[in-house]
Each structure stands twice: as structure tokens, then as C-alpha cells.
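so my prof wants the structure for this chain in the C-alpha cells format not the other one, which i didnt know existed until like an hour ago. anyway here's the sequence
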Amino acid sequence: MALGVLLFLLASERPAHAYTDPGSGMLIWQGVVAAFLGASFYFRKFVYKFFGKKPTDTKQE
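here's what i got, hopefully its the right format
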């Protein structure tokens, strides 16, 4: 019974009394890109530690 009521409430329409600025999508996109780039710079040291180049012996004789 409760599942039926929940499904009915989720499926029924309700009027939206809100305004979304047209620039909101770009603001969200900018936040996603900034979070990805920030995380990539932060985790770069871990990637180099585990997958980076190994120090090589460059002694010339």
C-alpha cells in the first residue's frame, strides 16, 4: 500500500514555483570542470609515485 502511494506521488505532476537562471547550467559545468582539474593536480603526485618513470642510471663512461 505504501509503495503504491509513493509511486503515485513520484509519478504525479506538481507545479514548479521556481526560476532557474539560464546561466545556471554553465555555472554547474564550470564547477565540475574546476573540481576535475583541481583533483587531477592534487592526485598527480600519487600517479607519478606509482606509475611514473623510474630513476635511471645515466652514468657515462
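also thought this was worth mentioning. DSSP finds two helices and no strands in the chain.
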